[in-house]
Specification:
With about 550 residues, the protein is mainly β. It contains three helices and 43 strands. The chain folds into three domains: about 110 residues, Immunoglobulins (Immunoglobulin-like, Sandwich); about 350 residues, TolB, C-terminal domain (Neuraminidase, 6 Propeller); about 80 residues, Immunoglobulin-like (Sandwich), CATH 2.60.40.10. The longest helix has 4 residues.
Length: about 550
């Protein structure tokens, strides 16, 4: 009996919680999920040979063996099940097979998977032309304005359900990104949020126009978590202009705001205070009412030089801001007026995405001057470091590579570098996501096209950004402490390393750094202390930063 008391089990998930004696069953009974790749959790049994998860439809009253759509064995108390159907209700139980083949069955637990119109073939149709499986990474593509994520076959695996009314009804959803700790950020204009994969709120950008001196900031286009844990986001400010030649109350000036995790503003840049906005009036750029609307849509950070690059679509301009002084220290693109101090180039026009690379190279989604015969493209440019330096075109991929892509992308678009060095290109208003390698070989593509009332497929749907993650659970781990033997299970899709902190009852502390554990593997560690001397065990994922604790009485 005393030995049984010395069994403590801890399973680690995306959301922090503590289990001191036995694990709970997950998903929770009657859970409503917005994804169909699900981790099942069930109590550890020291005498178990293996566990079997049984899943069937909730509508089947007395299921027989043939009614179970999942019957899967697992040696650990964690099992990932994929590809369940959207819009279905399920029930499940766990059968624990002990040594001697004695079987213990749990009660039934219930859960359902919500639905999305994006999965309804009456409204949308998934189209794919390329899928060179041997040359691409398995994983998930996050499609912002679809409000969903798809696997490499184009199947929806995560989504914003119709039940998420505030998100479905948002003006637009942009820039969905998944982070190593399992959280995600996205714009749901005019708001911006960080949530878990269940869309439970972790952080929401304050909805007060402190910087814009208005009712609200109107967050738009780009939002990210910084290495220091702060948040950086673009805010919109409408500025009124009135003089002898022009009157406008709808010029969109961009503000950059950095928040800490409590919602305090720790840094900001207000375009109105630093940009020579007189250059926008009667500029060289053709406008309808005599004043150019800048239309900022992307930023990238130069951490080495403590600077931020901010991109403006409608004035074909990228500026470099010194973060300390907030002054514009360089401008690139086209002149607005003769006296405009800008390093000129015709290598990009009407761009929608920028990403600073090494050696002052810039990865750009270049929509280009398509009305004058140019072709939309993705390119890598060397940006001049000084006036004596010059632009250099280092790589270019034209977006007219097949009959489906005509190279004329009027709006939106973005590009990201994937872990294998390939480029994930979102073609914006052309409604297509494509992956190419450095040799310009097309490896994968996907589009979710709208279907009209007659059943005809059209291309009116559009995307702003697409992002990649290796899976829905990149760093997902669990641990079992059995007397003084600790077993760590790496159930994420990425390899990980862990720091174990032993806090002893005599107030001393020991630390252990594990070797790298590959995904879906485990590691047993013999603790060189007596179980009775341990007060607390803390396990830290060194890749995701997640920390989990088990306490002892």
């Amino acid at each position: 009996m005393e030995r049984l008391k010395n069994k403590y089990v801890l399973f680690f998930f995306m959301i922090n919680f503590i289990v001191t004696s036995r694990a709970q069953f997950l998903p929770k009974d009657d859970a409503k999920l917005n994804y169909n790749q699900i981790y099942f959790e069930y109590p550890y049994n020291e005498n178990a040979k293996f566990y079997t998860v049984y899943i069937t439809y909730d509508s089947i009253v007395n299921p027989t063996d043939k009614d179970f759509i999942v019957k899967q064995q697992e040696k650990s108390p964690l099992l990932l099940v994929k590809n369940l159907k959207l819009g279905e209700k399920y029930k499940w139980f766990i059968e624990t097979t002990l040594r001697g083949n004695v079987k213990i069955k749990s009660n039934y637990f219930h859960f359902s998977i919500l639905n999305t119109n994006m999965a309804n073939p009456k409204f949308y149709k998934a189209i794919q032309h390329y899928n060179k499986k041997s040359k691409i990474l398995d994983g998930i593509i996050w499609c912002d304005q679809y409000r969903c994520a798809v696997d490499r076959k184009g199947n929806i695996v995560w989504f914003m359900a119709t039940e998420h009314l505030d998100l479905i009804n948002a003006k637009v959803v942009r820039d969905i990104k998944l982070y190593p700790d399992g959280s995600m950020t996205f714009i749901h204009q005019p708001n911006a949020s960080r949530t878990d994969i269940n869309l439970n709120s972790i952080w929401k950008a304050p909805y007060k126009g402190t910087i814009s001196e208005s009712e609200k900031e109107d967050y738009h286009h780009a939002f990210t978590v910084l290495p220091n844990g702060n948040y950086m986001i673009l805010g919109n400010e409408k500025v009124k202009f009135s003089n002898d030649t022009v009157t406008s109350d709808a010029v969109n000036f961009c503000n950059i705001i950095e928040f800490d995790t409590t919602g305090n503003i720790v840094w900001s840049w207000r375009m109105k205070d630093y940009f020579p906005y007189d250059y926008l009036i009667s500029s060289m750029i053709q406008t309808e009412n005599g004043i150019a609307d800048p239309h900022a849509n992307s930023f990238t950070i130069d951490e080495k030089n403590n600077a931020i690059y901010l991109s403006f679509r409608d004035i074909s301009r990228i500026i470099k801001i010194d973060k300390r002084t907030k002054k514009i220290i360089a401008s690139y693109g086209v002149k607005l007026k003769d006296e405009d101090d800008v390093i000129e180039t015709n290598l990009f026009r009407l761009q929608h995405d920028i990403q600073l690379l090494e050696n002052n190279d810039m990865l750009i989604f270049n929509n280009n001057d398509i009305d004058n015969g140019k072709t939309s493209c993705v390119e890598i440019l060397h940006f001049p470091i000084s006036r004596e330096d010059s632009f250099q075109l280092k790589w270019k991929f034209d977006l007219n590579y097949d009959k489906e892509s005509v190279g004329k992308i009027q709006r939106m678009g973005g590009v990201k570098i994937m872990p294998n060095g390939n480029y994930l290109i979102c073609e914006g208003s052309n409604n297509r996501v494509v992956e190419v390698n450095k040799n310009k070989e097309i490896l994968w593509d996907f589009a979710l096209r709208q279907v009209d009332s007659s059943g005809k497929v059209n291309d009116k749907f559009a995307l702003y950004r697409a992002n990649y993650s290796p899976c829905l659970y990149p760093y997902y781990f669990g641990a079992i402490l059995d007397d003084n033997e600790l077993t760590i299970y790496n159930k994420g899709c990425e390899k990980d390393t862990y720091k174990i902190e032993l806090l002893l009852k005599n107030n001393s502390k020991q630390e252990i750094i594990t070797k790298t554990i590959k995904n879906n593997q485990s590691l047993k560690i013999k603790l060189l202390v007596s179980f009775s001397d341990i007060g607390k065990v803390i396990v830290n994922s060194l890749k995701s930063g997640k920390q989990k604790v088990v306490y002892f009485k």
